Amino acid sequence: NAGVTQTPKFRILKIGQSMTLQCTQDMNHNYMYWYRQDPGMGLKLIYYSVGAGITDKGEVPNGYNVSRSTTEDFPLRLELAAPSQTSVYFCASKGLAGNSYNEQFFGPGTRLTVL
Amino acid sequence: DQQVKQNSPSLSVQEGRISILNCDYTNSMFDYFLWYKKYPAEGPTFLISISSIKDKNEDGRFTVFLNKSAKHLSLHIVPSQPGDSAVYFCAASEQTGANNLFFGTGTRLTVIP
Fold first, then answer.
1. What is the DSSP-derived secondary structure letter of residue A40?
2. Could A104 and B103 be called an inter-chain contact, meaning their C-beta atoms sit closer than 8 Å?
3. What is the per-residue pLDDT across B67-100, written as a single tens digit (0 to 9) for each?
4. Which residue of B has its CA nearest to A96?
5. Would you state the pLDDT for residue A49?
6. Helix or strand or coil: residue A1?
7. B89 → closest Cβ in A40, A42, A100
């Protein structure tokens, strides 16, 4: 099991460019999440999905979009990159009943810089 | 509005001694609490959790204590080892819906050999 994988690891964008952060999990988890972590801060939830075709907003959804066409994949789209979106992005997944209730498994992160 | 707070950004402890990391929360609807450990350039990894029906949960060297009346939890690491040096995040959720996690800002633990 690769667990949760994210690509790319690093990316530099210019203001106004768009990109998609990829996230894939091979644990057949229903729940998937996108977080961002700013320097010195905790993780904040951007969007989440409870299953294929179902997504919902988290704490900080503005400037992002998501889709969930399969159980495995949960891409995060930035349409018009802004410097405020410079952050480290983490994808996570969770099954309906894990070893520990509510335990989310995290990917290694994507470090994004917008200049 | 930060619903989960870790007021100590950093903590240094001698190897073999006890490390105590603290966390406070404001939302009384939270009923499940987790600690995650994070190394640089990696994603957070789950460490230990506790349900609100308990006041203590132990797993090897790690023990989490929950004081619901004070809305406070703590993570004890005994004995501390140099490999424990990392950033520790406290997280909380309600046991409903997607169980979205709310994270604290983290405490950087350094265990000195």
1. T
2. no
3. 999 999 999 999 999 999 999 999 999 876 667 8
4. B98
5. 95
6. coil
7. A42
Pairwise pLDDT comparison (A99 vs A24), residue with the higher score:
A24
**CA nearest to B51, candidates B38, B62, B64, B69:** B64
Q: How many CB pairs under 8 A join A and B?
A: 68
In this predicted model, what pLDDT tens digit does every residue of B22-51 receive, in sequence order? 999 999 999 899 999 999 989 999 999 999
Q: Which chain B residue shows the shortest CA-CA distance from A43?
A: B103
pLDDT computed for residue A17 by the predictor: 97
For residue B65, the SS3 value is strand
Distance from CA of B19 to the nearest CA of A (A): 21
Query: In this complex, do A43 and B98 lie within 8 Å of one another by their Cβ atoms?
Result: no
Residue A99 has pLDDT above 70, yes or no: no
A106 burial via Cβ count (<10 Å: 0-12, 13-18, 19+):
buried
Sign of CA dihedral A73, A64, A84, A80: positive
The answer to whether the Cβ–Cβ distance between A40 and B105 falls below 8 Å is yes
Helix (H/G/I), strand (E/B), else coil: A112: strand
- Smallest CA–CA separation between A19 and chain B, in Å? 21
* pLDDT digit string, tens, across residues A66-76: 999 999 999 99
Cα separation of B19 and B21, whole Å?
Answer: 7
